[in-house]
C-alpha cells in the first residue's frame, strides 16, 4: 500500500490548482488583427501608387446636370360651353290625298261678253278636236283610279324640296290631269297654286308619275280631265 498523499484532481502537489486554458476563434482574430491591419495598409498604398504611376490623368467623371428654366404659360380664359340644341322633330312624310273629281269645276263658263260674235274662233273640224291642251268636260260613267299610289308616295317624298320640308313649310297644289284612253297622263296643269313656286314645280314632277285606269263611258274607254290635290305636309 502506498503511503504518498493523494493530490486532488485539478490541484498540483504544492497545493496550487491547475486548469487547462482553451483559445477561441475570437481570441485568435484579436491576436492577428495587427498583422491584417498593417498588411492592408501596405497593399492600399501600393495600389494607389500604382494607379498614379500608370494612369496619372485619371479624373472623375463630371456628374453635374443642369435644369431647364421653366416658363410660365398664361392659361386661356374659361369659355362657357352652351347647352346642346334641342332635337328637331323629324317631319312627317308627305301624303297624297284622295282624288277629287268634280265635273262642274272642269267646265269653264262661257259668256257672249267674253266671246263676242265677231271674234269667235272657227268651228272645229270633225275628227280634229284636241281636248288635251286645256281642261274640257268629257262625259264618262266610270272615273279613272290611281293604280300606283305607293310609287307616287315615294316620288312625293323624293321631290319634296328639302329646304321647305326642313323649315316646316307645306301646301296643297290642285292639279289638272289629262288622261288618255289607255290611262296614261298626257298633260298636267296647275289648277290652283300652293303659294310656293317650288312646291308647284315639285307637284308637276310628281303628277307625271301617276298611272290611272282608263275612264269608261258605257263600254268605251274615253280621255278625260280630272282634278287631284297633291299635298306636301310636315306634320
Question: Can you give a write-up of this model?
Answer:
- The chain is α+β, with helices and mostly antiparallel strands and 235 residues long.
- It has a domain at 133-232: TonB (TolA/TonB C-terminal domain, 2-Layer Sandwich).
- 24% of the residues lie in helices and 14% in strands.
- It is built from four helices and five strands; from the N terminus they run H-H-H-E-E-H-E-E-E.
- The chain has helices spanning 25-54, 149-159, 162-166, 197-207; strands at residues 171-179, 185-192, 215-217, 220-222, 224-232.
- The longest helix has 30 residues, at 25-54.
- 11% of the residues are buried.
Salient structural properties:
alpha+beta; TolA/TonB C-terminal domain; single chain; 14% strand; three-stranded antiparallel β-sheet; two-stranded antiparallel sheet; 235 residues
Number of helices: 4
Write down the CATH topology of the domain at 133-232. Answer: TolA/TonB C-terminal domain
Shape: rod-shaped
How many DSSP-defined strands? 5
Kindly name the structural category: alpha+beta
Helix content: 10-25%
Task: Summarize the model shown.
The chain is of the alpha+beta class and 235 residues long.
Topology (SSEs and partners):
Layout: H1 25-54, H2 149-159, H3 162-166, E1 171-179, E2 185-192, H4 197-207, E3 215-217, E4 220-222, E5 224-232
Antiparallel strand pairs: 1-2, 1-5, 3-4
Amino acid at each position: 500500500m502506498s503511503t504518498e498523499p493523494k493530490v486532488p484532481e485539478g490541484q498540483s502537489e504544492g497545493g496550487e490548482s491547475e486548469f487547462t486554458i482553451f483559445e477561441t476563434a475570437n481570441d485568435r482574430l484579436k491576436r492577428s488583427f495587427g498583422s491584417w491591419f498593417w498588411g492592408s495598409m501596405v497593399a492600399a498604398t501600393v495600389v494607389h501608387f500604382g494607379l498614379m504611376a500608370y494612369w496619372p490623368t485619371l479624373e472623375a467623371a463630371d456628374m453635374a446636370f443642369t435644369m431647364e428654366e421653366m416658363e410660365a404659360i398664361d392659361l386661356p380664359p374659361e369659355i362657357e360651353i352652351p347647352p346642346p340644341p334641342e332635337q328637331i322633330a323629324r317631319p312627317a312624310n308627305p301624303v297624297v290625298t284622295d282624288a277629287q273629281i268634280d265635273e262642274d269645276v272642269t267646265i269653264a263658263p262661257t259668256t257672249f261678253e267674253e266671246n263676242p260674235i265677231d271674234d269667235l274662233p272657227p268651228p272645229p273640224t270633225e275628227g280634229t278636236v284636241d281636248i288635251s291642251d286645256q281642261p274640257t268636260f268629257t262625259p264618262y260613267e266610270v272615273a279613272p283610279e290611281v293604280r300606283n299610289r305607293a310609287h307616287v308616295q315615294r316620288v312625293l317624298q323624293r321631290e319634296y324640296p328639302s329646304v321647305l320640308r326642313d323649315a316646316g313649310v307645306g301646301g296643297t297644289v290642285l292639279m289638272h290631269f289629262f288622261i288618255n284612253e289607255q290611262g296614261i297622263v298626257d298633260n298636267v296643269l296647275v289648277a290652283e297654286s300652293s303659294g310656293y313656286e317650288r312646291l308647284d314645280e315639285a307637284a308637276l314632277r310628281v303628277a307625271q308619275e301617276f298611272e290611272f285606269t282608263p275612264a269608261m263611258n258605257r263600254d268605251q274607254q274615253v280621255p278625260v280631265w280630272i282634278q287631284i290635290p297633291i299635298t306636301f305636309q310636315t306634320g
